[in-house]
Specification:
The protein is of the alpha+beta class and 589 residues long. The chain is 28% helix and 35% strand. It folds into five domains: 66 residues, no CATH class; 173 residues, P-loop containing nucleotide triphosphate hydrolases (Rossmann fold, 3-Layer(aba) Sandwich); 100 residues, Beta Barrel (Elongation Factor Tu (Ef-tu), domain 3); 107 residues, 3-Layer(aba) Sandwich (Rossmann fold), CATH 3.40.50; 99 residues, Beta Barrel (Elongation Factor Tu (Ef-tu), domain 3), CATH 2.40.30.10. It is elongated, with a radius of gyration of 35 Å. The site of guanosine-5'-diphosphate has 15 residues, from helix 4.
């Protein structure tokens, strides 16, 4: 039997597995769901789970675990044997004022291919340069928090970290932080000892500090850390630095697949008037092209323009290429993974699931069967108010979303934010909302007429606010409306049965004495025999001395008709307790 063998690492993303199995990713997500795993296209499942799912699907495929390369968890994509060499991705880090920006500038000014440097019209966070015909991708470090975010997303993005240390200042707190970052990210370190042109420069001291205090031994001392003395100001040593970066990268044999759906990381995103969401991506695998459908975190769209770091249009962007794309309908977040999918439909369904997941389960990866059961039970016990939030700017969006999350309903009603973004209400929002009874809240945004029409057609509620408290009040009221009402019973009176006159198909007529309070038509009654409640019934009419009466009070004898069922066989001596039952709308605390 011709069995297909797929080799994967310890884990694989759902999207990748689907691709390898030649299955629509939604099928795979569905199969995982059946097995109690709620997943998204970008989610990683472990080897064991993947094996089980393949078995369940009855596929003629065997999974094999790829031997791990020295325990370095650098693999985010399982390379095929067709993988090709890719440029190294290099981050420049170091203490403030040690010359990171100057060094990047120096590299770009002198090394960037003719004409490109002048083309950089706006700040972007990644560049490429060419040294001896080989491309190097350089990341501008957008602050260490951003890198922490990257790490959290499980992305070992950088291959090499250039740690810039000013020769006249030595190792400083952020130098140490940068070293730690590089080590955690399993990136190779190249030290650039900068400002070597300065009189006070003391490169030997820097090397000693690094060697004795931080375990980075310079090669010239028999260690294995490459250290290059440079001056960002004069350009001295910069070529050597780039050569060293390439050398270190070569040892890593960096490769990527081209013949695979493009995927990678969101490295920046912002809204721009006239352009919409402008998203910086770093392609890790595959080739991104204009017209590709992308899912990025909880956003999706079709790539309208694809630009390189110098804002030049590209026909395609392969591995390690930083690009700027437009056409994504909402803002993905820094550190989100993106993947190209085949169609808008696939993108939409992947995003719908991703959004729900994102809200429920921001950090964790896999949900166990037990968790799923719990989630489903909760769904029976509590209801969800689904909302999509749109706001004018990221700041107000964050406040609205955070405030909504703080509405306390004792866990009874869950507020699920199934989508959020900056910008006006879009047709896309309405489409997403139509699928699952969702209210769209807009804060300081507008509802374009076409979208309004669509919302009316699909019966989607769109509520626009300019004052955050009013928006929150509305959300609170909507949640209150969903709270299960409180049941309030009020005792009204009691009676002892003295005689059973007739038992009809659905009525029993009996006589008795009102022992407390009153009895009246329409009241509910509990039938008590001895100490037990044996039935609940309703009073359909009351008679006093064979005359129809509205109510009869304590101490009086009366006849009464009670609704009955097969189970209710009244006996003399039974006690009836009359009461009213109301459903009272509850309020949130
Ligand atoms: P960053 O904060 O690490 O990005 O540092 P900058 O690149 O902004 O540099 C901080 C200061 O050091 C600036 O005034 C630079 O002009 C200066 N500087 C950077 N590199 C060199 C260098 O190689 N030699 C000298 N003399 N000054 C430098």
């Amino acid at each position: 039997m011709a069995e297909k063998v797929i080799v994967i690492a310890d884990s694989i993303t759902v999207g990748e597995l689907a691709e390898k199995l030649n299955l629509p990713v939604t099928n795979l997500i569905g199969e995982l769901f059946k097995n109690g795993i709620v997943s998204t296209i970008n989610q990683r499942i472990d080897f064991e789970t993947a094996t089980i799912i393949i078995e369940e699907l009855g596929l003629d495929v065997t999974l094999e675990k790829k031997a791990s390369a020295g325990g370095v968890e650098h693999v985010t994509h399982t390379l095929s044997d067709k993988a090709v060499a890719r440029p190294p991705i290099v981050a420049v880090m170091g203490h403030v004022d040690h010359g990171k920006t100057s060094l990047l500038d120096s590299i770009l000014k002198t090394k960037t291919a003719e004409g490109e440097a002048g083309g950089i019209t706006q700040h972007i966070s990644a560049y490429q340069t060419i040294r001896n015909g080989r491309t190097i991708t350089l990341l501008d470090t957008p602050g260490h928090e951003a890198f922490a975010a990257l790490r959290q997303h499980g992305a070992a993005l950088t291959d090499v970290v250039i740690i810039v240390v000013a020769a006249d200042d030595g190792v400083k707190p952020q130098t140490i932080e940068a070293i730690r970052f590089a080590q955690n990210a399993h990136a190779k370190i190249v030290v650039a000892i900068n400002k070597i042109d300065k009189e006070a420069a003391n490169p030997q001291l820097v090397k000693t500090q690094l060697a004795t205090e931080h375990g980075l031994n310079p090669e010239e001392w028999g260690g294995d850390t490459v250290m290059v003395e440079v001056s960002a100001k004069t350009g001295q040593g910069v070529d050597t630095l780039l050569d060293m970066v390439l050398l270190v990268a070569d040892i890593e044999e960096l490769k990527a697949d081209i013949d695979t759906p493009a995927e990678g990381l969101v490295i920046e995103s912002h809204m721009e008037v006239g352009r919409g969401a402008v998203v910086g991506l770093l392609v890790e695998q595959g080739e991104l092209k204009p017209g590709s459908f992308l899912v990025a975190g909880t956003a999706y769209g079709k790539v309208r323009t694809l630009l390189d770091f110098a804002s030049k249009p590209l026909k395609s962007a392969g591995p390690s290429t930083p690009v700027t794309v437009t056409g994504i309908k909402e803002l993905p977040q820094f550190g989100d993974r993106f993947i190209a999918v085949k169609s808008e439909k696939e993108a939409r369904s992947a995003v719908a699931i991703a959004r729900i997941e994102h809200e429920k389960n921001a950090a964790s990866t896999n949900i166990t069967g037990a968790d799923l059961l719990k989630m489903m039970n909760q769904q029976y016990e509590s209801q969800d108010l689904n909302v999509i939030v749109k706001a004018d700017v990221q700041g107000s969006l964050t406040s609205v979303v955070d405030s909504l999350r703080l509405i306390d309903t004792d866990g009874e009603i869950a507020l699920r934010i199934i989508g959020s973004g900056v910008g006006n209400i879009s047709e896309n929002d309405v489409r997403l909302a139509a699928d699952q009874e969702t209210i769209i809240y807009g804060f300081n945004v507008t509802l374009p007429p076409a979208v309004k029409q669509l919302a009316a057609r699909d019966k989607v509620q769109v509520r626009l606010y300019k004052v955050i408290y009013e928006l929150l009040d509305d959300a609170r009221a909507s949640m209150e409306a969903m709270l299960a009402p409180e049941v309030v019973e009020t005792p009204v009176g009691s009676l002892t049965i003295k005689a059973i006159f007739r038992t009809l198909k659905d009525t029993v007529i009996a006589g008795g004495e009102v022992t407390s309070g009153k009895v009246a038509t329409g009241l509910l009654a509990r039938v008590i025999r001895g100490k037990e409640t044996i039935a609940e019934t309703e009073v359909t009419s009351v008679q006093r001395q064979q005359q129809e009466a509205k109510e009869v009070f304590e101490g009086e004898m009366c006849g009464l008709s009670l609704k009955t069922s097969k189970k209710l066989l009244l006996e003399e001596g039974d006690k009836l307790e009359f009461f009213t039952r109301e459903l009272i709308k509850r309020k949130l605390k």
